[in-house]
């Protein structure tokens, strides 16, 4: 056996058990305290369903958009390398470090109907704040580093010769991108997408300021949990929480399964 | 060489990286059907030159012709070349068949062969490079030799006018390397290809190439057949680059060559030459130097050490009274009677090449004098 394997495994198990599994078990146990019937009724209320639909829908759209944007940014950071790309590289991580509420307030101020960007857009008939578009925007902001940090190292590890050999074989630049680079990056893109999506579903701080939070229209599920908590409806809050946990886990599982079927990983296993 | 006979022609090609010129003023012609090797130490510009021919190197001057076309301003994708990289550069997410088919499947619809035809062509190519049963494998499941064969099949799929090989055997182990380069040379002949090979391994170049261009500091130091380069190296640099070299100082006095320094009078030298008096460098291969018994009271060299290596005995020979480190190495077939350490002897340096001795070897790029 590898020296130190046993204590390392023990610590890992302890950590995962205490900090991950235990709270989740508590979450799973909580919703049923007022009876399963009441629980299901709360969960199937139109307001809850609308909030869940909004959270998952916006997270999906934002993750997809972030993945495309992230791919482009990675390409620029690694292959174009404009002057100052290192600074740009550092800026990508800012959403990781920034308190999400700060980001939320900033975005809300910018995109408010009176804001710097919000005002001209509102005049064009495209209000951002208080709409799902605003939510998607906030989620893209927090999701971007997840995509860039998973895709960029893989792109860096992709030999430039692949692109050159494709060119010598007659491929046009678009064909090189589409048939050589994107397929080779697909596993990383999928992981980045999954992370950005999972983060987006649960994102709270950066969204509530820009979302407007009108029930049925722009109220996200995490906010509804907070509202239920403030009403001392712990079972209701835990119920929504559990549902989100299950859905997010299912999505991550799906991403993992899909990833393993990709040809780019063929033979690696 | 004009018209149909022309494979590649470079005219005054230069390329500068930042402020250091990588390739300077190169003129080079390769006949159709020829196998040319570009050799030289790292940094000599051989890979840069190959990339210029391929169209992968932006920002060069001069003109490049492939066949009858001037391709100076033509991007790599339209040059109709095949390129093999040292790291193979196989597409990791495609299986072997898809890798080989790539060059055909990216063609515009009008010139793209049908699916069936592509499949047949890929199969034939995989047979040709002797990996017919690996079509469904992925690159990560292949050995180095198999990967290089696949990368060659992929390069040949588009029926290129010119095959460019950048250190294609560099990452292979020695036995596989020897086998695959002999096979490649056979393939070149069978398909009537025009090929340019970049290598830093002079032995490889001597074995496979019709002609060799020795590059140094971005210039062609000498170009010729392997026999020409071996029999008449143009400079000490070429002599040293092509193999193990023994170098002794000497001088010409009144048309006669004499060994210089501590070696004076210790051996036979090339016959009289018509060259101006002055210092010269005598260069030979360890196996072209003869070891003779000492005669009378002439100054002698001394066997300072001997070791067996394969079919040769390696003698270390130094001027009498000098330490072994100041000596030279001489290889004698092991079936000759051995000479004991400490025995006085004379050198047969008559097959040595002679070059004018400039104070610094970096300026010795003028053609040297060669003795019979």
TrEMBL record, chain B:
Residues 8-242 form the ABC transporter domain. InterPro entries: AAA+_ATPase (IPR003593), ABC_SmlMolc_Importer (IPR050093), ABC_transporter-like_ATP-bd (IPR003439), ABC_transporter-like_CS (IPR017871), P-loop_NTPase (IPR027417). Pfam families: ABC_tran (PF00005). Gene3D superfamilies: P-loop containing nucleotide triphosphate hydrolases. The keyword Transport applies. Coiled coil: none annotated. Keywords: ATP-binding, Nucleotide-binding, Transport. It comes from the Bacteria. This is Sulfate/molybdate ABC transporter ATP-binding protein.
